[in-house]
Amino acid sequence: MKFISILAVAALLAAPLAAEQKGSDTKGKFYYKKDCKSCHVAGGGASALTPLSKTQGQWKKFFEGGKHGKAGEALSPKYCTPEQLLDIKTFLINHASDSPQPETCGG
């Protein structure tokens, strides 16, 4: 009985993690390079950003705020679909400066 209680508590604690949607890391890299990188480089009209520009927590906070560029300017759907945005978010978080696989998104 004690084992079942421990499992129940573990399941309740894990539920919020399982509820978080994950996009495609591979597609996210593609969309970032195709749609975001042209502006987010030095001289590109927006602040230069790569996955390494922020920690995983900072990227999550960025996307939770729903902000992009100028204050109040929404990223989606003006720039991409919600599905593409989820893929980009997944890519940026998975390759942030404090991730197991940090990446610059070069080339």
Q: How far apart are the first and last residues' alpha carbons, in Å? A: 56 Å
Secondary-structure-based class equals mainly alpha
SS elements, strand count? 0
Rg over alpha carbons:
17 Å
Count of domain modules: 1
| CATH-derived topology | Cytochrome Bc1 Complex, Chain D, domain 2
DSSP strand content: under 5%
Helices and strands, in N-to-C order? HHHH
Q: Which outline best applies?
A: globular
Give the C-level CATH assignment. Mainly Alpha
User: Largest sheet, described in full?
Assistant: none
Low-pLDDT ranges = 14-18
Q: Which whole number gives the mean pLDDT?
A: 77
CATH architecture: Orthogonal Bundle
Helix share, percent: 40-55%
Task: Compute the number of helices.
Answer: 4
Q: What's this entry about, in short?
A:
The protein is mainly alpha-helical and 107 residues long.
Architecture overview:
- The longest helix has 18 residues, at 2-19.
- By secondary structure, the protein is mainly alpha-helical.
- The protein has helices spanning 2-19, 25-36, 56-64, 82-94.
- The model is unreliable at 14-18 (pLDDT under 50).
- It is built from four helices and no strands.
- The N and C termini lie far apart (56 Å).
- Helix 2 (25-36) packs across helix 4 and helix 3 (56-64) runs antiparallel to helix 4.
- It has a single domain (23-107), classed as Cytochrome Bc1 Complex, Chain D, domain 2, CATH 1.10.760.
- Helices cover 49% and strands 0% of the residues.
